[in-house]
Structures are given as C-alpha cells and as structure tokens.
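Action item from last meeting closed. Structure (160 res):
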C-alpha cells in the first residue's frame, strides 16, 4: 500500500510574504492606486483591505466607495486565496467572478474582504468570499469565482 503524500503549499515558503508584497502589491499599478493591503494569509485563505480614500468614492454626495472598487477588492482577495492554496508559484487568471452586492457600504470607511479556496483542481481554483466593514458576519457583498491555473507556464525566477 502506498503512502499518501502530504500536500505542499506555496504559503509555507518563507519567501511567500515578500513575493506577494513585491509582485502582487508592488508591481500592479491598479493595486497601488487602490491602496490594497494584506491583512492576513494562511493555507487556502486570505484577507485584504482597501482603506478609505476620497478618490475611491463613487458618488461625492454619499461618500461611499464605488462598487467597482469592491469588485476589484473581491477579485484581488480571490487571487490571493488562490496563491494561498497553490503548491508553488504559477500564473493565474480570473475566469469568472460573480459579486452580489448585499447592502450599501458605509460612507467614509474602508472595506475588508476575506476569501477561501474550497476546491483546487489541476486546472481551476474555486473561491468564495465576502466584503465587509463592521465584521465578517455582516457582509456588504459576497462573491464566487474561478481562477485558471497556468501550471504549464510557470513564472520564471521566483519560488519554485
């Protein structure tokens, strides 16, 4: 009888945080413009935050962060949860993202989002998540997403 191999995770690599800070947050102009911050990351899960900023407001009379910013946050946290589920670094791409807006965000406040990978296959990663302000149990939006694994096109020069 063969032994079952323990699954490996990219996030267990000591270089993970630096890699994400440089690549995920540092090299993507859109992430910089949004002010995207990593709150936490663990196997299969991630939490990101966008602090409140005037340039992110959709309607100046309401002071509420634009829905497109929430969509970008949900896509980003889904991508980060994907990296937290992968065995090693590889290119990924969003295949599908559905965001349900559950209630308006509160004016003048930042937004956090948490996502988890609930299924990892050889070619697709399945993610679900929520965006919130007062607490994870009071979401302002929820999402489900799929990400394509480009495992045949490994990113060169990074953690393998």
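Sequence:
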């Amino acid at each position: 009888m063969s032994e079952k191999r323990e699954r490996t995770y990219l996030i267990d690599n000591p270089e993970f945080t630096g890699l994400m800070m440089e690549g995920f947050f540092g090299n993507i102009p859109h992430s910089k413009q949004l002010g995207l911050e990593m709150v936490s990351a663990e196997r299969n899960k991630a939490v990101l935050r966008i602090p409140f900023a005037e340039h992110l407001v959709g309607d100046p009379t309401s002071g509420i962060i634009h829905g497109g910013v929430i969509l970008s946050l949900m896509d980003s946290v889904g991508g980060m949860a994907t990296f937290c589920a992968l065995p090693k670094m590889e290119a990924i791409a969003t295949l599908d993202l559905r965001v349900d807006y559950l209630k308006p965000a509160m004016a003048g406040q930042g937004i956090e989002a948490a996502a988890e990978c609930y299924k990892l296959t050889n070619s697709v990663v399945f993610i679900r998540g929520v965006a919130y302000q007062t607490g994870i149990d009071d979401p302002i939006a929820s999402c489900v997403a799929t990400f394509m694994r480009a495992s045949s096109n490994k990113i060169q020069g990074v953690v393998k």
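Note appended to the action item: The chain has a mean pLDDT of 89.
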